[in-house]
Amino acid sequence: MVRCPLVVAMLLFLAVTPAWTQNHPVVPTGAMRNTMFNGQLAGLVQLDSLASPGTYGIGPLEYLRGELLLWDGHVFVATAVGDSAMIVEELPESRAPFFVHQHVGRWTEVELPDQVHDHATLDAYLTERFADLDVPFAFKLAGRFDDVATHLVDVPPGTSIAGPEDAHRWNKHFHHEEVGMDMLGFFSTRHQAVFTHHDSHIHVHAISEDRDAMGHVEEMRFRAADVLLFVALPER
After folding, report:
1. Does residue 235 contact residue 104 with C-beta atoms inside 8 Å?
2. How far apart are CA 144 and CA 40, in angstroms?
């Protein structure tokens, strides 16, 4: 009889452990097109409602005042300071007008071929390898990058947005060379203008290893040997 509570506890542990290691489906909230074309700028989701260990996501800060990165339950916010500086903070109560996230229990490493060396070739490689799965998923890159170009949205308060040009004209641009970074991206062939741009199958945000630089990735250049790629394919 003494061992019964222990047996029950072990059975409960075995019953719930698979849920901890399971990759959940990708969940989009709002849509890029609604923000950029219809002026939906107010936050639709507050990130502390998503910020549990194992959850990853990206999107803009509400009213397009900065960029958001949810990394393993930590909410990072990057906002511009003038035209050439930024501040990166952990602010769990931040809100986003559109956002995409996934709870990841297990990352799977995928070897990068040598011909993958920038944003376009990464998009093409993921499309060639995973498009037939017809399922969106998160991916992450980690390593040393030769060049990374990022931007922060920084729309002045009260600005009306009736198209992407109204938002992008206020972007603050940053360039990083020979830098260690972690990047979080989302891949999909059927979510263009929802959480990827209309001409791409990936949307990527990056944060430096020291967590003092962050942004939406416009371009990247790297050697495949210097970077690790991990994917989070949802369970079927």
Report:
1. no
2. 36
Query: How far is 104 from 102, CA to CA, in rounded Å?
Result: 6
**pTM for the model:** 0.90
Read off the pLDDT of residues 180-219 as tens digits, 9 standing for 90 and up: 999 999 999 999 999 999 899 999 999 999 999 999 999 9
What's the token pair of residue 236? Answer: 């079927």
Determine the straight-line distance between the first and last CA of the chain, rounded to whole angstroms: 40
- Cα-to-chain-centroid distance, residue 208: 14
Which two structure tokens, joined as six digits, stand for 130?
């995973």
- Side-chain-facing half-sphere of 131: CA atoms under 13 Å: 11
DSSP annotation of 192: B
- pLDDT above 70 covers a percentage of the chain that reads 91
Cα separation of 65 and 61, whole Å? 6
Question: What local confidence, expressed as pLDDT, does residue 235 receive?
Answer: 75
| Token pair for 60 | 């803009």
DSSP secondary structure letters along 2-42: TTHHHHHHHHHHHHHHHHHHPPPPPEEES-HHHHHHH---S
Place of tokens 């009306």: 160
